Amino acid sequence: MNSSSKLLLFDYDGTIVNSELAILNGIKYALNYFNCSIPTDEVLRKNIGKPLLPLFGEYTGNSDTSFHNKLLETYRSWYLDAAQAEEINDHLYPYAYDVINDLFNDGYLLGIATNKSRSGLLEGLERHKLLKFFSCLKTVHDTKAKPEPDMGLEIISEMKVVKNNVLMIGDTINDALMSKNCDIKFIGVNWGFNDKETLMKNGAIDVVETYHDLYKKIKTVLP
Hints:
- Helix 6 links the parallel strand 4 and strand 5 (136-138).
- Helix content is 48%, strand content 13%.
- It is built from ten helices and eight strands.
């Protein structure tokens, strides 16, 4: 165990990348493909960051898990096809690349804990030229989804870092609760899919307004 290494865990969707349109379009495509009713954008948006399998059950009112899996595979197939056609409507949040690059150069270890699929995460990181910065990636293909603690605990174990030197950065209650379940510090960002009040109520040290503010806060919390 390395008592001096400092680890920053990032969520992906809603924290590094604004992928709202891509996620909503993919879910709508999958539901429409199977002639299911499509919830409002407001309902879809508030659930971004949650695992899709149980959400498809909730959206369809269908308890057949094999059907949920068909919807999920249709969503993922659409996503990868759209990515190959360069039609994914997502983009980095302002100064995300610069700040992540600065944190990497400052000597922080960087990891990602996301409820996204591994293939979708790798595609996005490569397309946005971010993959080189992250030493460890955990997705729903690797372990239990957030808010369960497994992603965080596995990264901490693999990176051999003490918990006091770990900080999670994310935009949803799932990120906050995973941090709480791992007993690690959490900073929320207000440009994602949950509001400041929700994140603060669930254990955030603070909720920052910009990536520049995030850099400053990290230097205060984990100098």
